[in-house]
TrEMBL record:
One of its GO terms (molecular function) is amino acid transmembrane transporter activity. This is Threonine/homoserine/homoserine lactone efflux protein. Keywords: Cell membrane, Membrane, Transmembrane, Transmembrane helix. The chain crosses the membrane at residues 6-27, 39-59, 71-90, 111-137, 149-169, 189-207. GO terms for cellular component: plasma membrane. It comes from the Bacteria. Its main location: membrane. The lineage of its organism: Bacteria, Pseudomonadati, Bacteroidota, Flavobacteriia, Flavobacteriales. It is found in: Cell membrane. It is a multi-pass membrane protein.
Length: 226
């Protein structure tokens, strides 16, 4: 079991530095709302990851086949990201936007952050594909032993979480440099990033079916490791 630790640790580090909408929203939340708010948001993200891991483990190849034949899921997730990004980009500045200290505290506010993190991760079908890929590629290397597989995933996601704590702490240091005007610009930039991520996800949904063959792509990755 311990022989799997280096590979799991490396995989967790790679996952932690993958650039996507969650990455930027996490940094923005830490910088404008503080450490605790960012942790709550991140817990929502990780809850979605755990749900995806469960789905991926139980469904495996059958789900890959369904995803390859249902590109509309990519379009759906991409459109949601685009709409959310447009709302953020076009939104006029409010007191909360210009003074993030007003958004602190309260179970209601933290629940909103948790749900925001969960949904932002959950609508990105690409995250599910990543966890499917991890399980399909790693499974044979751990002899398809459930204990070794979940230990591997546990180390991987724990590494991911610890690295995210570092991101939050570093991003929080930027808070003192964020004037109201800069906060407004950060929100607009984040909106543009979400729009771009949504467009990329939507384009994936319109690719020819042979380009969407996720199962074949993951099998090629696995064959190259064997």
């Amino acid at each position: 079991m311990f022989q799997d630790f280096p590979a799991a640790l490396t995989s967790g580090l790679v996952l932690a530095f993958m650039i996507g909408p969650v990455f930027f929203v996490l940094l923005e939340t830490a910088a404008t709302k503080g450490f605790r708010a960012a942790i709550i948001f991140n817990l929502g993200v990780f809850t979605a990851d755990i749900v995806f891991i469960g789905i991926a483990y139980l469904s495996s190849y059958q789900l890959l086949e369904n995803l390859s034949n249902a590109p509309g899921l990519y379009v759906f997730g991409g459109v949601i990201l685009i709409v959310y990004g447009l709302m953020m980009y076009l939104k006029r500045p409010t007191r909360e936007m210009l003074d993030p200290t007003r958004v602190k505290g309260g179970k209601h506010g933290y629940l909103q952050l948790f749900i925001k993190g969960f949904l932002l991760n959950f609508i990105n079908i690409g995250v599910l594909v990543i966890w499917l890929g991890v399980i399909i590629v790693v499974g044979p290397t751990v002899d398809n032993d459930p204990v070794r597989l979940f230990t591997f995933l546990g180390i991987m996601i724990s590494t991911y979480f610890i690295v995210d704590l570092g991101k939050i702490i570093l991003a929080k240091q930027l808070k003192r440099f964020l004037t109201p005007r800069r906060i407004f610009k950060v929100k607009k930039l984040l909106g543009l990033i979400l729009i771009i991520c949504g467009l990329v996800l939507t384009v994936k949904g319109f690719l020819p079916k042979d380009k969407m063959d996720i199962k074949k792509g993951l099998e090629n990755i696995r064959d190259s490791r064997s």
